Q: What sequence folds into this?
């Protein structure tokens, strides 16, 4: 009832006209109203109808004017916002910077604990190339190189392997590296040894010897060894699927960047230029000195002489034997 009364109040003129029309129609049918009354009623109804039409047109015109005014104000506000929107959406705007920040976060995966070892194992399993840059390459010759060779043998494919380590003939860089490793931990590592200049040099010499030894035993291996006078606190392992960046402290989180990300290619370029600035070891000269399954001291001395990487004069047979053991029976320093 309330809704009906509200509708009648809102449409009073139309409702009144309807009542008059019905009343006159009934009177006309019963001959209780004269013709003049009927005609007057018709005129009244037409007047009410015209008034209703005029009121509706006035309401529509008012609504159209209000709508145009609102649209005009909205357009003015949009014009004022356009410079700010342009600044936000520009190539160097807020949205672009935010998008870059989000993309850069998604490019890099942080690895902790056992995830680091799993990531390395996964990268080794399918790769046909590997690039390493780091300290002495102890883990590389103990784990990475032999496992990559084994995976290449199983799939009957070739393997391109690059190694860049510190130059064992440069005592200054070896001293800096040994001091850096001692600053991380003065205690012996999993091999049972502390880091000294002598150990640093032997580890680097052992990596060179291991590269030549594996090269002579695998026709699928193409290996390149570089010696650098610059020390890096990071280690880079780049495979065909990802690049993994670690530090010497195994407790420090590692970073993994997949091949589909732009920074994978940036690091690939970085490693290439770093190799070009390092001293190349002529591994092909190792063919002149065939190595036994366990090289002798004499073979090892002749090998390093042929490579142009002479052993220190102070190294006796014992020191050379230490290098052979480190190269052929390498131990994982992180087990």
A:
């Amino acid at each position: 009832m309330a809704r009906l009364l509200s509708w009648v109040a809102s449409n009073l003129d139309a409702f009144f006209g309807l009542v008059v029309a019905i009343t006159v129609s009934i009177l006309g049918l019963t001959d209780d109203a004269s013709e003049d009354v009927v005609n007057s009623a018709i005129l009244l109804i037409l007047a009410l109808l015209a008034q209703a039409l005029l009121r509706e047109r006035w309401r529509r015109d008012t609504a159209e004017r209000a709508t145009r005014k609102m649209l005009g104000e909205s357009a003015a506000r949009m014009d004022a916002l356009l410079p700010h929107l342009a600044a936000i959406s520009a190539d160097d705007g807020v949205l672009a910077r935010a998008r870059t920040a989000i993309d850069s976060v998604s490019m890099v995966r942080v690895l902790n604990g056992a995830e680091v070892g799993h990531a390395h194992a996964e990268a080794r399993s399918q790769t046909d190339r590997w690039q390493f840059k780091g300290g002495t390459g102890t883990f590389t010759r103990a784990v990475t190189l032999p496992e990559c060779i084994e995976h290449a043998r199983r799939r009957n494919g070739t393997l391109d392997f690059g190694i860049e380590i510190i130059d064992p003939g440069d005592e200054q860089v070896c001293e800096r590296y040994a001091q850096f490793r001692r600053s991380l931990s003065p205690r012996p590592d999993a091999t049972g040894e502390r880091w000294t200049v002598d150990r640093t040099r032997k580890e680097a010499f052992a990596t060179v010897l291991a590269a030549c030894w594996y090269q002579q035993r695998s026709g699928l291996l193409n290996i390149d060894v570089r010696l650098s006078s610059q020390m890096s606190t990071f280690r880079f392992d780049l495979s065909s699927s990802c690049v993994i960046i670690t530090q010497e402290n195994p407790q420090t989180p590692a970073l993994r960047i997949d091949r589909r990300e732009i920074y994978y290619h940036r690091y690939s370029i970085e490693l290439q230029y770093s190799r070009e600035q390092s001293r190349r070891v002529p591994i092909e000269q190792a063919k002149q000195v065939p190595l036994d399954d366990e090289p002798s001291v004499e073979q090892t001395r002749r090998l390093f002489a042929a490579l142009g990487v002479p052993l220190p004069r102070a190294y006796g047979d014992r020191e050379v034997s230490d290098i052979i053991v480190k190269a052929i029976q390498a131990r994982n320093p992180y087990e």
